[in-house]
Amino acid sequence: MATMRRQRLNSTSIRSAGYDEFSQDLEVEFANGKIYRYHDVPYELYVSFKRASSKGRFINWRIKNTFPYTEMENRNDVNRRYRATGINEESRR
Questions:
Q1: What is the C-alpha separation between 34 and 36, in angstroms, rounded?
Q2: DSSP secondary structure letter of residue 68
Q3: Which of 19, 24, 28, 91 is nearest to 58 (CA)?
Q4: Least crowded by CB within 10 Å, which of 59, 74, 79, 90?
């Protein structure tokens, strides 16, 4: 899966989020560093999420148990895995 561009959010539980209109994927990076990509999320729901006063509550109530998701590797996990194998991420590019 390709990396999705995310925007920083003003939220205590969510660090950043991004949306792909073509695939209707919503990618959310939580404050704990975990990243989830929710599939088949309608654009209108993404707009409502961005406008929500509590983005964490919105995700919990409207997204989490409604849409299928994939847990993504965060950058720290990828770097840790490559350090363990003696490969750095920059040399992969």
A1: 7
A2: -
A3: 28
A4: 90
- The DSSP output letter for 32 is T
- Tens of pLDDT, residues 20-54: 999 999 999 999 999 999 999 999 999 999 999 99
Pull the structure tokens for residue 71: 């847990």
pTM of the model: 0.78
The sign of the torsion formed by the CA atoms of 56, 59, 65, 71 equals negative
Residue 2 gets which letter from DSSP?
P
- Which H or E run contains 81? helix 75-85
Strands annotated E in the chain: 7-8, 14-20, 25-30, 35-38, 69-72
